[in-house]
Predict the 3D structure of the following.
Amino acid sequence: MKYINKNFTIEKVKAQSLAKQFRTPIYCYSYKRLKDNINNFKKSFKSFSPLVCFAVKANANVNLIKEIRKFGLGADVVSIGELMKVLKAGINPKKIVFSGVGKTFDEISFAINKKILLINAESKSEIIQIDKIAKSKKRIVNIGIRLNPNTDAKTLSQISTGKKENKFGVDKKTFFELVKYSNKSKNIRLQCLSVHIGSQIINHLPYEKMLKIVDKIIMKANHKFEFIDLGGGMGISYKNNSKKFNYKKYNIAIKKFLINHKSKIIFEPGRSIVGNIGVLISKVIYIKENQKKNFIILDAAMNDLMRPALYGAKHQTLPVLKTTQISKKTYEFVGPICESTDKFITLKKFQKLKENDLIVICDVGAYGMSLSSNYNARPKAIEILINGSNINIIKKRQKLTDLI
């Protein structure tokens, strides 16, 4: 994704031509960047060949998951809906991990029937539920237990999952109790210790701390775990020149950990696979002048991209056509929804814009479309995958008649 002759281009396709052909807003993904991200992730840890399970919550487009499957990845799901989607996309059930704190009776039953690799349990009540269902089906079910390591990932509080005040996983004392319970059961096979400390982590040090805690827990538990699920959470750069995650140092820490523990490592990356593959193309509907700033009112809104409203996230915003004219006014990019939080970013010294101009909001491949909604009865945007000069519609634009 770059400018070619002052035109913002996704691989070999101009964003401007996409807007003319399909109308805005448009979610647009780069196949080449997806391919590079997957290959680079696998290369970073090739010395111990982990099972990489794509975190579907980041982007649940079935056609995109089909492409991800072709690279040998499995899937990490957190609902029966996500599980159905990845099965439809052709993911091997033996490469599927079911996570989440609130799995229902129906969800657990469905997962057991589909013979997935692991159900990662997060409470004693859930394990008892799995045990009962497995017994009724006369099945032995592979499970993991998610440990809460009380590790601060130093990320946003809204996406922290590894501290003791977070709802995820169990504490050390409960973990040991559940290991004993599982070992006594005839219908549960405890195969995995699972851990996940947060999202958008750009420092390897919290992971090193987490590994030291997991190491001690395994020693004390005196149980052979077939798998150690280290979750995901590796961050990406949302702005130029920002710090990047050090995969090399994380790899070294895991290799050191594996000297004492002969287990298969599972990863659940989401953002690091799809975060930077997508842009949201939007049109300027109106420019509303104010004494202090100009409101750039877009046809994309917080229902299309929730992250700025939900987390205060900032996405790089660029003009589709580059010029040399710079606005003297501060620009605040907003959507048409009736909420003051329906704004994307405030920028000074942005290129001068006029109504009907096009802009792109970058790095929306993760938690962009998957967090989108029909708030204000707005149809969801079209999704397009670009491969070279090939344009593939991977999800049609929702019609108003579908909503009404």
Q: What stands out?
A: Residues 205-221 form the longest helix (17 residues). Residues 304 and 369 are 7 Å apart (CA to CA). The domain at 2-29+275-403 is CATH 2.40.37.10 (Lyase, Ornithine Decarboxylase; Chain A, domain 1).
